[in-house]
Amino acid sequence: AQSVAQPEDQVNVAEGNPLTVKCTYSVSGNPYLFWYVQYPNRGLQFLLKYITGDNLVKGSYGFEAEFNKSQTSFHLKKPSALVSDSALYFCAVRPSNDYKLSFGAGTTVTVRA
Amino acid sequence: SAVISQKPSRDICQRGTSLTIQCQVDSQVTMMFWYRQQPGQSLTLIATANQGSEATYESGFVIDKFPISRPNLTFSTLTVSNMSPEDSSIYLCSVEGVWTEDGTSTDTQYFGPGTRLTVL
């Protein structure tokens, strides 16, 4: 069975400061890892993914994430947060040989001006 | 990525009734899925919609309660039957395997905007 843990329900940062949203996972075999963002009353938007290759992946809106196999982590980062980054962020994982995604509980990010 | 639309975007229904949600994609896709997001919670996979055959349901979800159709590679419906207030959720359609111009398909799930259902 696969699972995702997002240890922080909420993350609060000031605009211009670095933003980190944590994610750890458990999966059999090689993981496919994803980050999605959900704005109020909207569906999920894909941000970035790790499939293979370089451990540091870059995605939309200046976000990046680093795959760490030894720590089974895939933390989402942004060097300088914007107020418009305030949203609900989901980490998701699936094994490379299965299409079923498992989602974390989500982390609410609030960026204050 | 594909453009995914859902209808209706929201609805308020009476208990005991049924609602059918439509999901339309602007290109052919290999796989289509239906998720439920209960208030304040994460996403739970309801089923995989299979073209031309019965959907594959996850544990805790049954066809009588959530019948699903997928008549072609761009369209699917989810019906929430005999609704109760516990069915109040956001229902999301997602797709994977969007065919690109070079003949490859993506390995990423893309989500529709969701249908916000309130059952009174």
What would you say this structure looks like, in words?
The complex is a heterodimer of chains A (113) and B (120). Chain A is mainly beta. In chain A, 0% of the residues lie in helices and 53% in strands. Chain A contains no helices and twelve strands. In chain A, strands 2, 5, 6, 10, 11 and 12 form a six-stranded mixed beta sheet that branches. Chain A starts with a strand and ends with a strand. The mean pLDDT of chain A is 94. With 120 residues, chain B is an all-beta fold. Chain B has no helices and eleven strands. In chain B, strands 2, 4, 5, 6, 9, 10 and 11 form a seven-stranded mixed beta sheet that branches. In chain B, strands 1-3-8-7 form a four-stranded antiparallel beta sheet, with no helix packed on it. Chain B is globular and about 50 Å long. The relative contact order of chain B is 0.33. The chains are: A mainly beta (113), B mainly beta (120). Chain A binds chain B through residues 32, 34, 36, 41-46, 49, 51, 90, 99-101, 103-106, and chain B through 1, 4, 6, 31, 41-43, 45, 48, 92, 94, 96, 107-114, 116.
Give start-end ranges of low-pLDDT stretches of chain A: none
Share of helical residues of chain A? under 10%
Strand content of chain B: over 45%
Percent of sequence in beta strands of chain A: over 45%
Termini of chain A, distance in Å?
41 Å
Number of strands of chain A: 12
The gyration radius over C-alpha positions of chain B equals: 14 Å
Overall body shape of chain A: globular
- Helix/strand/pairing class of chain A, anyone? mainly beta
Largest sheet: number of strands, sense, barrel closure of chain B: 7 strands, mixed
The helix tally of chain A amounts to 0
Residue-averaged pLDDT of chain A, rounded?
94
The average pLDDT value of chain B, as a whole number, equals 92
Count of helical segments of chain B?
A: 0
**Biggest interface pair, residues each?**
A-B, 19 and 21 residues
Output the helix-strand order of chain A.
Answer: EEEEEEEEEEEE
